[in-house]
Amino acid sequence: MLSSSCSDALKVEGEGMMRRNSTLVCVPIIAESVGEMVTDMGKAKGLGADLVEIRLDYLKTFNHNEDLKCLVKECPLPTLFSYRPKWAGGQYDSDEKNRLDALRLAMDLGADYVDVELQVAREFISSIEGKKPEKLKVIVSSYNFEETPSVEAIGNLVAAMQATGADIVKIATTCLDITDVARTFQIAVHSQVPSGCEELAHVGKVPLIGLGLGERGLISRILSAKFGGYLTYGMLEPGTVSAPSQPTIKDLIHLYNFRQIGPDTKVFGVISKPVSHSKSPKLYNEVFKSVGFDGVYAHLLVDDIQKFFQTYSSMDFAGFSVGIPHKEAALKCCDEVDPVAKSIGAINCIIRRPADGKLFGFNTDYVGAISAIEEGLKGSHNNNGKNTTSGSALAGRLFVVIGAGGASKALAYGAKQRGARVVIANRTYDRARELADTVGGDALSLDDLPNIPPEDGMILANTTSIGMQPKVDDTPISKHALRSYSLVFDAIYTPRVTRLLREAAECGVTVVSGLEMFIGQAYEQFEKFTGLPAPKELFRKVMENHS
């Protein structure tokens, strides 16, 4: 189980508020010329960086004395110099003495930090003994591009790095699973306040930089502020990446509200695979900040959802949105499930109950989607007076659902509850038949969908990922077949207008975007996450700004 660490509150320059952690934000400067580096340093300062890492190995030409003097003199921020060799994931591939001489010269000329690899750290630190300026800190770094070792192995590694005389220890490991990051958090917490863990008993107190490489390691960079990391890295702008899955400094500071993350900040996120397309972090983090709620919301690329919950079991990890393909499997991970979600057989929202830490599952998909479709029918010229005593415009209509996964179950359940006649169309007929039997509907294979007999007022709802970024040219059904429908709904919202919706609109059919479902289900999730009423106008304004 992970626990929080303490951090000092620092003043955020120019923002008139207290920052709630002491973790520094560092921007790697990876330009190919000194002039470009100087320009980028100014940009980094303007974006709010605390320091810059000057990657000397990216320079195409490098005059040690002249260029280092210029870089130190012209930099408006504290400087961290690194000269990464190819064997440590960098660009430099020449004489080793020349490389270390450059770092020693950077130290002499006024660098604030130098970063050296564990393999050469003892030699380097010995060579500067008695010459090291008081302000200089030596970062000793280790990279593992294959995996994230066990806690015990990482502990042994950190102890070995401390023994070199390091001022700061940096470990970067490849995350094959998002649960690998938990080991880095455990080491980070122990390095500040010894935890009593036997595996880490030999690890002393030392400032630590712990980074998870790859998309599954993203939370290591965001939550370093919560778990007491010395610094984190944010790239200057998209495309200027010095390590896999680095967020931009703009996203760190403004999307994730990095400076306001503290030891008591609750962690939320969207569990999905793929997950990077999700706009949920943009929505929730902006709303959290606006209402003053102490939470941070992140993308969580999860392969094994049961393993995820077994690993991140502390109260710090407070709530989750659940996306494709985990909506059904997530139900089995919960201690309790809302009766409606149980009837649907899928959930899209989990909260960790503060009273006892148990996981409680809900389904807000069906409310968001069905409400959006009903609103679309109200404004449709194809409504045809379908409202009945049930009060729903869906009553009596043929409601065709494409897909048989968790979102499909939610829509089929909601449509049936509103009095619609449900048909499930899926690539695998057996899956369609299984869901149809569950909700009391009919089934057919996706290939047979164009042959369905047309009738007035038909509704088509796509709940699959067909047409989602990046495969935006895909569609689950031909344009010709869309003419039979009164309304077409697509659960996808990236892009907002999918090929399916575009072609339906060209046929004169009313269309409803998945963005409407997304906003509708998010209201209820926000209230479950925070215990606060959802600011609906703010939700819609945020999503309009990001669409």
CATH class of the largest domain: Alpha Beta
Give the termini separation: 38 Å
Measured by DSSP, the beta-strand proportion falls in 15-25%
Mean pLDDT: 92
Helix-strand category? alpha/beta
Point out poorly predicted stretches: 1-15
| Portion in helices | 25-40%
| Count of discrete structural domains | 3
Write down the CATH topology of the largest domain: TIM Barrel
In total, the number of strands is 22
Shape: elongated
How many alpha or pi helices? 19
Q: What is the CATH superfamily label of the largest domain?
A: Aldolase class I
Indicate the CATH architecture of the largest domain: Alpha-Beta Barrel
Cα-atom radius of gyration: 27 Å
Describe the strand arrangement of the main beta sheet, using strand numbers: 9-8-7-6-5-4-3-10
Major β-sheet annotation: 8 strands, parallel
Explain briefly what this protein structure is.
Pfam families: DHquinase_I, SDH_C, Shikimate_DH, Shikimate_dh_N. The chain contains 19 helices and 22 strands.
